Amino acid sequence: MMAAAHDTRRQSFVLSYRNASRIGAVVLLLLGWRALTALVGAAVLPGPVETVGVATEGIIVEGWMLANFVNTLAALLGSFLVAVGVGGVIGIVLGSRESLRAVFEPFLLNTYAVPKIILFPVFLFIFQFGIDQKIAFGAFHGTFPMAIILMNAVREIPDIHRDVARSLQLSRWQNVRYVVLPSVLAPLIVGLRFAFNLSFLGVILSELFAARSGLGLILQNALGSVNRPYIMGVTFVIVVIALLVNFVFYGVQRYLEFNWGISVDEGGM
What pLDDT is recorded for position 160? Predict the structure, then answer.
């Protein structure tokens, strides 16, 4: 019991140290940003206070950003759900079937390595302008990490677990529910995080290149008119969305590590 208590205190200390370091890094970043603004001038680089003011004005006070903000979130949610569903099925199937994995894994990995922005005209031709195009392009980005991480995780499930499932004559759904998912829980969280990040990237890229609404469209218009406060304000909102969701995923990872003893391996992603 004393050893367990010692380990708990040690884990708490390590977590507190990490959190303090992260807060310190954020403070240093903000101070560096403010110092750079003072050096080059707020007209060239708006400072943190000015940027937060523009973002607040755009979403809450005047609302000129609100409709596009909601549109981007809707496209992001749709693309993330599609990426998780499609990528999850692909990962589980390829991870479970050696014959299929031997055929399709090279195509999956090589396609993932291709810069996906070069395929954007294809999505534009198929889906035209609108939220469907953004969802499809975002999901195309997010599907690959989800599929690759789950494929590797399912492949590493111990054979004894599969043997027990066969001896109990579990159905395919029961095998996924009671054997596969519990075994890949930690990699699944990592896959969800990467799927979100790349889906978000795909949505913003599609809005920057061709869209009728969204934060990327506002950012593109601000870049065209060299409206620096709007550029910083919209960029700040995009960064905050990404950070908040990633903090949630990291929180789940830390919970699994400290409370369930599950080590979260990011699989080299």
Answer: 76
Residue 267 has pLDDT above 50, yes or no: no
Question: Contacts from 4-11 at CB under 8 Å and sequence distance 24+?
Answer: 11/258
Q: Do 194 and 149 form a contact (C-beta atoms < 8 A)?
A: yes
Its pTM stands at 0.83
Which letter, b or e, does each residue of 117-149 get, where b requires 16 or more Cβ atoms within 10 Å of its Cβ? Answer: eeebeebbeebeeebebbbbbbbbbbbbbbbbb
3-state secondary structure 147-186: HHHHHHHHHCCCHHHHHHHHHCCCCHHHHHHHHHHHHCHH
Name the DSSP class of 57: I
Q: How confident is the model at residue 194 (pLDDT cuts 50, 70, 90)?
A: very high
Model confidence pLDDT, tens digit, residues 31-89? 898 898 888 888 888 888 899 999 999 888 888 899 999 999 999 999 999 999 999 99
Question: Which among 223, 221, 224 is positioned nearest to 212, based on CA atoms?
Answer: 221
Query: Could you say which DSSP state residue 116 is in?
Result: G
- Assign domain 48-259 to its CATH architecture: Orthogonal Bundle (1.10)
Backbone conformation region of residue 81, classed left if phi is above 0, alpha if psi is from -120 to 50, else beta: alpha
Distances (CA, A) of 105 to 101, 111, 226: 5, 10, 45
Other residues' Cβ atoms within 10 Å of the Cβ of residue 10: 10
From first CA to last CA, the distance across the chain in angstroms is 37
Contact of 200 with 242, CB cutoff 8 Å: yes
Residue 83's contacts (CB-CB under 8 Å, 6 or more residues apart) are: 138, 139, 141, 142, 143, 146, 195, 198, 199
| Neighbour tally for 219: CB within 10 Å | 22
Domains of the chain, residue spans:
1-45, 48-259
- CA 196, CA 138: separation in Å to the nearest integer? 9
- For residue 53 the two structure tokens come to 């003011």
